[in-house]
Specification:
5 strands, alpha/beta, 2 domains, 233 residues
Length: 233
C-alpha cells in the first residue's frame, strides 16, 4: 500500500488553470511568477492540509514527491502572504460546487459515499452488568451508525456490547448501494473478499496498515498436472 494517489492531478481535473486565472482577474491580482504560480500554491496548500505537513520547510522536502514543482520554503511563504485570501476562498467554493453528482459521473465515481463508524457509551459495571466492556471495570454499549455523507442523514444503526469488535457488526450498517467509507477496524481481509464475491459488489474505501500490500493473483488451471521436484539440502 505504499503507492499513493497524488492530489495535484485530481485537483487539475476538477479546477482548470483558466478558472484560476479568472478568479485572479476578479480579485485584481496579477500573477507575475513563472516557476511557482498561484495555481501551484493552491495545490501545495491542499497537499499540506492532506498530508499534515509541519510547515513550509517540511513541505519543501515533500513537494516533488507529490507531483508539485520544486520551490524553497521562502518562496512558498512569500507567495502565500502576497496572494489575497479571497482568492483561496473562491477556489474552495468552486471546488465544493464542482464536487457534485455531475462531477462524480465524470470521474466515474459509481455511488454516494456512506460513512460508517462506532462509539461506545460507558457506564459503571453495576449499572449495566449485562454489557461488560473490554476495560473490565466498566460496562458499555457500542453504537454502530452509517451516515449519508452528502446530506448527513442517518442510514442505519445497530448496537452491541462493548466487548464485540467493530468488524463483527459492519454488515449490519453497510449497504451495497453506497460506497463504504470506514477506518481500519473494519478492514478484515476475509471481509474484503466477501465484498467482491457477493452478487451486488460492495465498493469500499478502508484505511489499512502500512505493512499490508496488494498483489494480483493468477488463476491456476487445475486440470493441468503440476510436476514438483524436491531437492534435498
Amino acid at each position: 500500500m505504499n503507492h499513493r494517489t497524488m492530489l495535484a492531478p485530481i485537483l487539475q481535473s476538477i479546477i482548470s488553470q483558466e478558472e484560476t486565472e479568472l478568479l485572479l482577474q476578479q480579485a485584481n491580482y496579477v500573477d507575475k511568477a513563472r516557476k511557482f504560480t498561484v495555481y501551484n500554491l493552491f495545490t501545495c496548500l491542499a497537499e499540506a492540509a492532506l498530508r499534515q505537513w509541519d510547515g513550509y520547510r517540511d513541505g519543501e522536502k515533500r513537494m516533488v514527491a507529490c507531483g508539485l514543482p520544486k520551490a524553497d520554503h521562502s518562496t512558498i511563504s512569500k507567495k502565500a502572504k502576497d496572494v489575497p485570501f479571497d482568492v483561496f476562498k473562491q477556489l474552495l467554493h468552486l471546488l465544493i460546487h464542482k464536487c457534485s453528482r455531475t462531477t462524480r459521473r465524470r470521474l466515474r465515481i459509481p455511488k454516494e459515499p456512506l460513512a460508517v463508524h462506532s462509539t461506545t457509551i460507558s457506564a459503571g459495571h453495576n449499572r449495566l452488568p449485562w454489557a461488560p466492556s473490554a476495560k473490565g471495570d466498566k460496562s458499555g454499549i457500542k453504537l454502530y451508525v452509517s451516515l449519508l455523507t452528502e446530506t448527513g442523514e442517518l442510514h442505519r444503526v445497530t448496537e452491541s456490547t462493548g466487548k464485540q469488535h467493530d468488524s463483527t457488526r459492519c454488515t449490519a450498517v453497510t449497504d451495497p448501494n453506497f460506497i463504504l467509507v470506514a477506518d481500519r477496524a473494519y478492514g478484515k481481509h476475509k471481509q474484503f473478499d466477501a465484498y467482491t464475491e457477493q452478487v451486488q459488489r460492495q465498493h469500499f474505501v478502508i484505511r489499512v496498515k502500512t505493512t499490508r500490500y496488494c498483489s494480483n493473483l493468477s488463476n491456476v488451471n487445475k486440470n493441468v498436472p503440476i510436476n514438483i521436484r524436491l531437492s534435498k539440502i
